Amino acid sequence: MFFGTNLTWNVNSPVQFTNPPAAQSNNTGDAVSVSAAATDALSGKTISYTATSLPAGASINSSTGAITGTLSDAGFWQTVVTATDNSSPTHYTNTTEIDWTVNGAIAVTDQGDQVNQIGGENKGNAALFAIKGCKKSCVPILFGTIVAAPAFDFRVPIWVFPAIFLIFGMKAAA
Q: pTM (2 decimals)?
């Protein structure tokens, strides 16, 4: 009679990132330099690097793993860096992920005068201000009386302010 058993065999790659990069948050126009260096436990092996989904304007040095450049587009990227050694016949690899947010320049589009008086014909209407390049992490700097909490409409995207106020500018949320 034969009795079997299950065997799980985990093989750890000799390629390991020395200090995996943390999540990144930058603005368009920022010059960046992020290290994604790895080591190889097998002596004499050379490591090469590739990356997918880097922010626009950034590139990876295939020999050092350094990610550098000047960021040009706002958005969110989930970058995957792969380090591969030159072992033969099997190449060992390892990957690390970087969540990368690039905030864009903020510009408030003039919507003309917004006047809503209590009891007037526009009662309850919200003053709309289109804010270009602003993601949900932007916060308005206001002066005046807000009659309800501002809301961000993700479909447009615009901020909706049911208020009587002046906008002084925008800043990134902390």
A: 0.58
Handedness of CA 147, 151, 153, 159 (dihedral sign): positive
Q: Which of 123, 119, 41, 45 is nearest to 86 (CA)?
A: 45
Annotation: CATH topology of 15-103: Immunoglobulin-like (2.60.40)
Indicate if the alpha-carbon torsion angle 11, 17, 23, 25 is positive or negative.
negative
* Cis peptide, bond prior to residue 55, ω within 30 of zero: no
Residue with the larger pLDDT of the pair 108 and 41: 41
Residues 6 or more apart whose Cβ sits within 8 Å of residue 136: 152, 154, 157
Would you say 97 and 21 are in contact if contact means Cβ atoms under 8 Å apart?
no
Q: How far is CA 129 from CA 132, 138, 156, in A?
A: 10, 13, 11
